[in-house]
Amino acid sequence: MWKFQQENRQKLVEAGLKRWEIGEIASRIGQLYYGQYMRTSEASYLSEAYIFYEAILTREYFKEGSFQDFNLANKQLRFLARFLMVCLVLNRREMVHQLVNQLKMLVDECKRTFQINDCNPVSLQDTDFKEWKLVVQEIVRFLKADTAFMNIRPLRYSLVLDPHPDVLPHVAAPVARKNLRLRDAVLSSYHHNEVKFSELTLDTFRMLQCLEWEPSGSFYLSAGGKSGQNGALGSSPINHSQDIADPTLPPNPRKAVLYRPSLTHFIAVLATICEELPPDGVLLVYLSASGGTTRHTLSLSGSGTGINTAENITRDFQSHTIHSDGTSTSSMSSPSNSPNPSASQKKGDCISYHTGCLQFGNRGSGGLNCIYPSDLIPFTRRPLFIIIESDASEAISGAEKGERAALLLSPNCSFPIGSSDASRHSVGSLFTIFLTAPLQAFCLLLGISGSDIEMDTYKHAESLLSSSLNDWGLKLATSDNVDPVWAQILGDPFLRRFLLSVETELDQPIESGWTWSGQFNWSCTLDETVH
């Protein structure tokens, strides 16, 4: 379609084709490319989306008549918001700041032009521009949290800074029964008042970035450590061919980013991905949400069979390790543990217990929006790498079905952050920052947020961290005591980086006795984190 209008532009213009209509065609094509990138994670689609959007911006397709036609102004605003999202994912921060300024000015100008103010009756236009004000607030808040300091080093896997996959230490065959590769990832978060832009939250954005190849090392080739607009690390114009990752590298793992999904949607996505997962593939599940407990009651309808039924149900829950909450007045324990089960449970009695879960919706809806350990268990028939960012992370553990799952769990309490204005609501979840940018996370603990950092000291610390991670990786790969759950994923560069980042925060190595499910759990003391 684009080629057709290029070849027949003069005839189409003579027939009445408007310039903004050409821009709308280009915008829709760009959105198609971005949607295809979200489905496949192929960087070439993202680069194509950028090319079309940039052409619309530089040729000003929407400028003419935008302040005379309300619908045309809305089209231009939608274009800017979509281009912003593409630039965020591509890490084009200089362009991001340019687009934010344009978006602010356009919203303000439209409000003045169409005479929308508090004195006028509420209209469709008034409602629309209030929503656009909210969009501006979201992106400003997002950039305030995801600062230039957080992006000193690219979150994506860079061959300039990270080891090439071909040179990663080889794990001995007896230790690693399989050699798994990350093929798919499901990323989702739900927190009250969390930092987000559109349907991309800050936590899922960082995980999304961390599961991509840095295009040909262009971040450092173009940025050169220079400060761009608004203090962000900028990049000079580069050839779009540089945005394509090295063809010798494996493709990016596919990623499904779920924004506040319903439980049925979440499970349906997991089921579809597991069905298509190749034999050598592993699925990463990242969940960031607040914890909660749900009260359940089991009614005993009979003196004999009812007790046996309750025993079976209770044993079934216990086998899935749905833990009782410590504050529960009636903990979930098997009646068989009682010296006299028939005496402890009579006809008409109820067994009351609480189960830990992750809240992916309003607390008032009970268990409808909760993710329980038993929800994930059917999918452990395939290799899973699960990351839980929650104050109830320990709730997600259980009995696997066929494959032992690897778990990385955040602490159950908040770490003190040195900066007075830094919190989960302002900078994102700390455990996720440690996984994606460990040195920046450590600086946040010390109260260093970027403006007061000495770059020579930072570079020295970065060099020490990189060296220690490489040493850890070599030690684990050559050790005979590494659990096979971890050994089989050490060959994957993305999962290896997550594993080593957490390892630097632990007070003991993973070859010592960890739980049978291959679980990591941070202790909640600053001293051990510093260690």
From TrEMBL:
Residues 327-344 have a biased composition (Low complexity). GO terms for biological process: DNA-templated transcription. Transmembrane segments: none annotated. GO terms for molecular function: transcription corepressor activity. Residues 321-347 are annotated as: Disordered. It holds the Pfam family SCAI. InterPro entries: SCAI (IPR022709). PANTHER family: PROTEIN SCAI. This is Protein SCAI. It comes from Gossypium trilobum.
